[in-house]
Design a protein that fits this description.
Four Helix Bundle (Hemerythrin (Met), subunit A); alpha/beta; single chain; 2 domains
């Protein structure tokens, strides 16, 4: 039974799709005025995994991830660069696609751009005016927050508290400090479109409402995005879409947590901001992916070289288990698939799913050590299938193991102790000795590894190891 934490209710709920067997999902994509950073990568990877898992679970998934290609930041950056907005956005869309391809992020079924949906945006704004939820003020169109009683439910914010902290800029014509722009009157030098209220451009929030409801209908299953979008962006989306369409908007809201650096939120102002293309030369892209999914998507994750090293080492152990398997082949669903499904059904718990893969890899090593080629082939096939749901193990094992990451290069010299490959071989040999009740050999291998600075830990799922 799949259960997902719903940001709207604040609890995990059993997932019930609107249309049997089908899932319609929307995720807020990037505003394309700069290169994607590691925080963007987390969002992109998280919802790529959600989509992959739902598909593996048997759902027919329609996934929409938009591109914001017109807004204040884009206009300002184009002005700073002295280039047309269209040139700026085209360049950064291409960069985004390059980074996504490197990280193994599948393209969405639909990737609408705001500028391509101007008629739908204008129609939705017109519907909101007609229904009394919006008003025209000096060429702008503003949403009247007080007309929507449920405003604040997603973020848990109260209107009176929001009003107490709100301020109206000089020149604004709001009836309420909380009212927000659906349409902005044209300003000199800015891109504009014609509308019934005069030339101008849309506000950011209405863009997503128009694109999502056009492609997925007024009521769909899942809406995702970063935690920082919960308010005001997603709150405003709900208000606009429900009012314009006269129906429920989204059943399940999902939000991924922040990337942190030394326990501080990653941001340009703190100088701890990294783009994807800055970090990829230092590590293999699949390592960044493994790092992201090594923590639960809703919590914060600390970006550090040590955590990246651990992700690299864990990934290499999986590749090492697959090496030298003569013919990995698909296997019937076993306890590993069931366990994988069980933890992923619990709000997409990728951290536990990786633990399942590591334990399965240890059983694969034992089968290889025992010379059970048939069992090894079945386990390897199942391991590759389950890992592919997370977007991992997409390379040939020999190729992966022959290419050291800059993060781990030189770490496994004789002076520093045995390499991962040697350790895994000894652990597999010890597992085989224990299976044959050869306790003396089992103890000898444990002592040998201990002398080399490696600690073994036996548990119900097998033997794990760590360096002192």
């Amino acid at each position: 039974m799949l259960r997902i934490h719903n940001s709207l209710t604040g609890r995990k709920e059993r997932f019930r799709e609107i249309e049997p067997g089908k899932v319609r999902m929307y995720c807020c994509g990037l505003t394309v005025y700069d290169y994607p950073h590691v925080g963007h990568a987390r969002m992109l990877i998280v919802f790529d995994v959600v989509r992959r898992y739902l598909r593996w679970r048997g759902y027919d998934v329609t996934f929409v991830r938009n591109i914001t290609d017109i807004d204040d930041n884009i206009i300002e950056r184009a002005r700073e660069n002295g280039e047309p907005v269209e040139s700026l956005t085209a360049r950064f869309i291409a960069a985004m696609n390059e980074d996504c391809d490197a990280l193994g992020i599948e393209r969405p079924d639909f990737e609408p751009r705001a500028t391509e949906y101007m008629p739908q945006i204008i129609d939705m704004i017109g519907a909101l005016i007609e229904k009394g939820y919006a008003y025209v003020a000096d060429g702008d169109v503003l949403y009247s927050v007080s007309k929507f009683p449920a405003y604040g439910r997603l973020s848990g914010k109260k209107l009176e508290d929001l009003r107490a902290g709100a301020r109206v800029e000089i020149g604004e014509h709001k009836r309420d400090p909380l009212d927000f722009a659906l349409w902005k009157a044209a300003k000199p030098g800015e891109p504009t479109w014609d509308s019934p209220w005069g030339p101008g451009r849309p506000g950011w929030h209405i863009e997503c409402s128009a694109m999502s409801t056009t492609l997925l209908g007024p009521h769909f299953d899942i809406h995702g995005g970063g935690m920082d979008l919960k308010f005001p962006h997603h709150e405003n989306e709900i208000a606009q879409s429900c009012a314009a369409c006269g129906s429920k908007f989204v059943n399940v809201w999902m939000h991924n947590g922040h990337i942190r650096v030394k326990d501080e939120k990653m941001s340009k102002s703190l100088g701890n901001f990294f783009t994807v293309r800055e970090v990829l030369p230092q590590l293999r892209p699949e390592v960044l992916r493994a790092f992201v999914i090594s923590s639960h998507y809703r919590g914060p994750i600390n970006y550090s070289e040590e955590n990246l090293r651990q992700a690299d080492a864990a990934l290499s152990r999986l590749y090492l288990a697959l090496r030298d398997v003569r013919s990995a082949r698909p296997a019937p669903s076993t306890e590993w698939s069931e366990r994988f499904r069980e933890v992923m059904d619990d709000d997409f718990n990728t951290a536990e799913a990786l633990s399942v893969l590591q334990t399965q890899a240890r059983e694969l090593n034992s089968a290889k050590a025992a010379g059970d080629d048939a069992r090894a082939a079945e386990l390897a096939g199942e391991l590759k299938e389950l890992a592919s749901v997370l977007g991992l193990l997409q390379h040939e094992p020999g190729e992966w193991l022959a290419t050291a990451s800059r993060l781990t290069a030189g770490e496994t010299s004789a002076a520093d102790g045995p390499g991962d490959e040697e350790i895994e071989g000894l652990v597999a040999a010890r597992t085989a000795a224990r299976a044959g009740k050869n306790w003396a050999e089992s103890d000898r291998i444990r002592d040998e590894l201990a002398a080399k600075g490696v600690i073994l830990e036996d548990g119900p799922g097998g033997t794990s190891w760590r360096r002192k």
